[in-house]
Every structure is written in structure tokens, then in C-alpha cells.
């Protein structure tokens, strides 16, 4: 899934794709690079981001979705039911919902829905987040929402642990280390680590953080890890590089559990069919 932020203030690419024409061009570029889905968002979710009105969010995303949906699978990244509704009318076929609350819209339109876990809102989420059992609490919440959505008639339900949303570095790492628990729920899992700040804090030295444009190594390492754990979709800025990693993961049949038990597949056991993982 390629990220298309039609915003002036997103944490990594704010302002770059704010004009519709530039956004549409970027979307086609990502599809040429191998993206299966383009995720269009009109409101930044980064900590401290200014809220955007419904009217402004619609003004940002609808023309872009209308122009793209004939050529590309589009998802809408929003927390507002009115925006989700209009985006689907305009051609979006997946609702990427960081509030995990919009399943009724998905049910009404018979489109897919991503339930992402977060604590608090952009203003409060990074103020001393606390969990007794981060994996249990995140997967419990996601199972609950996914079950409610399924009951309401949504047939394409995805779950996402919400890396960076109300989580410390340790919480993020623990969740990434336990992706197998989410995969074991049976719902397809999606993950977004691309260029996020925990990647920078981990490898910075002497207090100098890695700038957002230089976080490709961490983004690729975590996306590759996630795909190897069975995650079915990764949400990324750097599509071409991630597609290369996805092809390798799919082609080698990389199996982390097998590696742990010392029985990694030999080259002769490599699968040759198309990879199942998307980017
Ligand atoms: N992360 C962001 C936004 N939407 N959706 C899902 N499902 N999972 C994520 O991890 C996720 C998401 C934040 O990244 P970005 O869109 O690049 O930044 P911003 O929110 O500042 O626009």
C-alpha cells in the first residue's frame, strides 16, 4: 500500500502532494513502482497535528480519488464517517480507519475496512502511554472490533496494531516482535512503520536523530520482518524498495519460525510462485 498524503503537515512528506495534480502524479508513480493500493489521506494523524474540518478534508481527497479510482485500487485514510462515505461514493474500495470505528460505513457500502489500534488522539496519544500487556490489549481490542464489523456484514476486515499511535518505542518493538499473535487471529494483518520516529530514535547516537528522509533502512527492515511474519500488507512511502523486499520474502518462502528452529529453507526449497504479500 503506497501512502498518498494530500496534506500540508504530514510528518514525513507534508506539503509535497498537497495539490491534486501533484498527488495524482505521485499515485501513478507508486503504481508504476508496484503498489497494489494507494492510500489517500487528507488529515495528518501525527502527534500534535491540527484537526481538519470535514469540508476541507473532502476538498483535499475527493478530486484525487475520483481521478484515481478508475485506474487504481484506492483506500481512504480517514476517521470521519462523512469523508469515508463520500470517498467510497467517489470510488474508494477500502476504508483505512485509524479510529477503528467506521465499520458501519464499510458494511453499508460493502467495502473493505482496516481497524487500526490507537490510544487517545493526536494531541494526547504520546503522553506517557501505558499498557499492562501491550500485545494482549492491542489484539483484544482489534479482535473485538473485527468481530463487530463481521457481525455487521463487513466481509473484508483487516487489523493493524497501529505502530506509533499511543505507544512507546518498547511498545512498538514488542508489537512488532509479536506480529505472529495478530496473524494467528485469522484476520489479514496490515502494518505501517514507514519512516516513523521510533526507527530514528533507535539508531541515533549522541542525541542526533535520523532525519525523516533517511529512514529507509529501518523502514525496509521492519517491513521485511513484518512480511516474513505473515503480515499481508505494509503501508509505505518508499514503494519501489519495499516491492523488492516483498518479492524476496515471497520468493524465498522466508519462514521466521523455521529459522528459529534451525530449519530455514534451502535454496532448492524456494518457492517460485508470485508472492502473496503486497506493498
Ligand atoms: N500510520 C499513519 C497514518 N495512517 N493507517 C494505518 N492503517 N496504519 C498506520 O500505521 C498508519 C495509518 C501515519 O503515517 P503518515 O500517513 O505517513 O503520516 P501523517 O498521519 O502525518 O499523515
What can you tell me about this protein's structure?
Helices cover 42% and strands 11% of the residues. The chain is built from 11 helices and 8 strands. It has helices at 20-33, 54-68, 81-89, 103-109, 134-152, 169-177, 179-183, 197-203, 216-228, 239-252, 256-260; strands spanning 2-5, 37-41, 73-77, 94-97, 112-116, 157-160, 190-191, 233-234. It binds 6-hydroxymethylpterin-diphosphate. The site of 6-hydroxymethylpterin-diphosphate (HH2) has 21 residues, from β1 and β5.
Q: Notable features of this structure?
A:
8 strands, 279 residues, alpha/beta, two-stranded parallel sheet, 11% strand
Produce the secondary structure layout.
Layout: E1 2-5, H1 20-33, E2 37-41, H2 54-68, E3 73-77, H3 81-89, E4 94-97, H4 103-109, E5 112-116, H5 134-152, E6 157-160, H6 169-177, H7 179-183, E7 190-191, H8 197-203, H9 216-228, E8 233-234, H10 239-252, H11 256-260
Parallel strand pairs: 1-2, 2-3, 3-4, 4-5, 5-6, 7-8
Helix pairs in contact: 1-2, 2-3, 4-5, 9-10
Bound molecules: 6-hydroxymethylpterin-diphosphate.
Number of helices: 11
Q: What bound compounds does this protein have?
A: 6-hydroxymethylpterin-diphosphate
Rough shape?
A: globular
- On the 0 to 100 scale, the average pLDDT is 88
Note the gap between the termini: 5 Å
Q: Biggest sheet, open or closed, and with what strands and sense?
A: 6 strands, parallel
Overall radius of gyration? 18 Å
Helix content: 40-55%
Determine the structural class based on helices, strands and strand pairing: alpha/beta
Number of strands: 8
The helix/strand series, from N terminus to C terminus, equals EHEHEHEHEHEHHEHHEHH
Strand order of the largest sheet: 1-2-3-4-5-6
Amino acid at each position: 500500500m503506497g501512502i498518498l498524503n494530500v496534506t500540508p503537515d504530514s510528518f514525513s512528506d507534508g506539503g509535497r502532494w498537497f495539490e491534486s495534480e501533484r498527488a495524482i502524479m505521485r499515485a501513478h508513480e507508486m503504481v508504476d513502482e508496484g503498489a497494489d493500493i494507494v492510500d489517500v489521506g487528507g488529515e495528518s494523524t501525527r502527534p500534535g497535528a491540527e484537526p481538519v474540518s470535514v469540508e476541507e478534508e473532502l476538498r483535499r481527497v475527493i478530486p484525487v480519488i475520483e481521478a484515481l479510482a478508475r485506474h487504481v485500487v484506492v483506500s481512504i485514510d480517514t476517521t470521519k464517517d462523512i469523508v469515508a462515505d463520500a470517498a467510497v461514493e467517489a470510488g474508494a474500495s477500502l476504508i483505512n480507519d485509524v479510529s477503528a470505528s467506521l465499520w458501519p460505513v464499510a458494511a453499508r457500502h460493502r467495502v473493505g475496512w482496516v481497524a487500526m489500534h490507537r490510544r487517545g488522539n493526536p494531541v494526547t496519544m504520546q503522553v506517557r502511554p501505558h499498557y499492562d500487556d501491550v500485545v494482549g490489549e492491542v489484539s483484544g481490542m482489534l479482535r473485538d472490533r473485527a468481530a463487530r464489523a463481521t457481525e455487521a456484514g463487513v466481509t473484508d476486515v483487516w487489523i493493524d496494531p497501529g505502530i506509533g499511535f499511543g505507544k512507546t518505542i518498547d511498545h512498538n518493538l514488542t508489537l512488532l516482535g509479536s506480529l505472529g499473535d495478530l496473524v494467528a487471529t485469522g484476520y489479514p494483518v496490515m502494518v505501517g512503520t514507514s519512516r516513523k520516529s521510533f526507527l530514528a530514535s533507535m539508531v541515533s547516537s549522541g542525541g542526533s536523530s535520523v532525519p525523516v528522509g533517511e529512514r529507509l533502512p529501518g523502514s525496509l527492515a521492519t517491513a521485511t520482518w513484518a512480511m516474513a511474519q505473515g503480515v499481508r500488507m505494509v503501508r509505505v512511502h518508499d514503494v519501489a524498495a519495499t516491492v523488492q523486499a516483498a518479492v524476496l520474502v515471497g520468493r524465498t518462502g522466508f519462514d521466521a519460525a523455521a529459522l528459529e528452529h534451525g530449519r530455514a529453507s534451502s535454496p532448492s526449497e524456494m518457492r517460485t510462485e508470485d508472492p502473496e504479500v503486497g506493498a
